[in-house]
Every structure is written in structure tokens, then in C-alpha cells.
Specification:
With 186 residues, this protein is of the alpha/beta class. It is built from five helices and eight strands; from the N terminus they run αβαβαβαβαββββ.
Length: 186
């Protein structure tokens, strides 16, 4: 469900089974509280990687984000994501039905930029975190002052960063954690 903003309390379609893992409401609320206090929600462009059914990106749009670029490689999940966007009358953003790293490279070549990038890969894909951070660090898709947020298992550490993209904050909540990264000026 959408927890705040224009579409507050609206329910979203989801997929059965274990193919996607939704971000829990409490963790999502923490994420948006931190980003809103940093001025990174309203009128900001977002990327939602491993988007699943779009819960985090749709929450961003509900709270005033200007656009969201979604990347989801599962065609079933992407179809539900499209249905969720349509049910809310949303057309802000794009859906790339491909691997997140490929989507980032495509967006970079197209000149697409965003202020916030949220990534939530399947927890078993530990190597994906470093790959995504390397692609972002090596590209121009993250605007100056932009933030990358990685959701991960509390017992797994995705690392302090890649290239000039460095972790500046780690929040633990239950069995999940959020790592916040931004470009280092050093």
C-alpha cells in the first residue's frame, strides 16, 4: 500500500510467491523520513532498481517526486508495476524491463539523470550491490548531490562504496538495513 502523500492508503497489486520481496511499511517510512529531511523527495527525479511491483517508486511519486525511472527484469513484476501505475493514473517515469545495471547504462547513454536511486535486489544476490554502485559511480546518471540508497539484510554489509560513491549512513531496522551513499569530494 501507499503510506503517505497524494495516494495515501491506496492498495497496490502484488505478486504471489517469493519472486519479489516488498519493502515493509515501517522501513519505507524510515526511508522517506530520512530523504524528506534532506530535501530529496519533492520535485526530485528517482530511479527504482529491482522495482518489483513499484512500491517504493510509487511512494516517491505520491510524496511529490517529479518522475521515477523503474528497472525490473521480471516481465510478470513489470506487468503488475504497469497496472499499479495505471490504477493511480500515473505516467511519470519509465519502465525498463531489463537487468538494473543494463538499465542504468542505457539511461546514462540517453542522458537521463536522477537525484535519488533506490536499489533493493534479491538479498541472495550479494554481488549485485557492488556492481550497481560501480555503474553509478562510473556514470553521469546520478546528479550532483544525489543519493543512492541500498536496502539489504542486516547481517550483510554491501560495503562502504565503489569509486567516489561512499556510504555516509547506515540504518538498521528489524532484519533489514538501509545504506546511504553519495559522491565523495575527496
Amino acid at each position: 500500500r501507499v503510506i503517505a502523500g497524494k495516494f495515501r492508503s491506496r492498495t497496490l497489486k502484488s505478486l504471489g510467491g517469493i519472486e519479489t520481496r516488498p519493502t515493509y511499511d515501517r522501513l519505507k517510512e524510515t526511508l522517506f523520513n530520512v530523504l524528506a529531511s534532506a530535501g530529496m523527495v519533492e520535485a526530485r527525479a528517482w530511479a527504482d532498481l529491482f522495482a518489483g511491483t513499484g512500491s517504493v517508486g510509487i511512494e516517491a511519486l505520491s510524496r511529490g517526486a517529479s518522475s521515477v525511472h523503474f528497472a525490473e527484469s521480471s516481465s510478470k513484476a513489470a506487468q503488475v508495476l504497469r497496472q499499479n501505475l495505471a490504477s493511480l493514473g500515473l505516467a511519470a517515469g519509465t519502465i525498463s524491463e531489463r537487468d538494473a545495471a543494463e538499465a542504468l547504462r542505457e539511461w546514462d547513454k540517453s542522458g537521463i539523470q536522477f537525484d535519488v536511486c533506490f536499489l533493493d535486489p534479491p538479498y541472495r544476490l550479494h554481488g549485485t550491490y557492488g556492481e550497481i554502485l560501480r555503474v553509478i559511480a562510473g556514470g553521469t546518471m546520478l546528479r550532483e548531490g544525489g543519493i543512492v540508497v541500498a536496502e539489504h539484510e542486516k547481517r550483510f554489509d554491501p560495503g562502504d562504496g565503489e569509486g567516489n560513491l561512499k556510504r555516509y549512513r547506515l540504518l538498521n531496522q528489524g532484519e533489514s538495513s538501509l545504506s546511504f551513499y553519495r559522491r565523495s569530494t575527496e
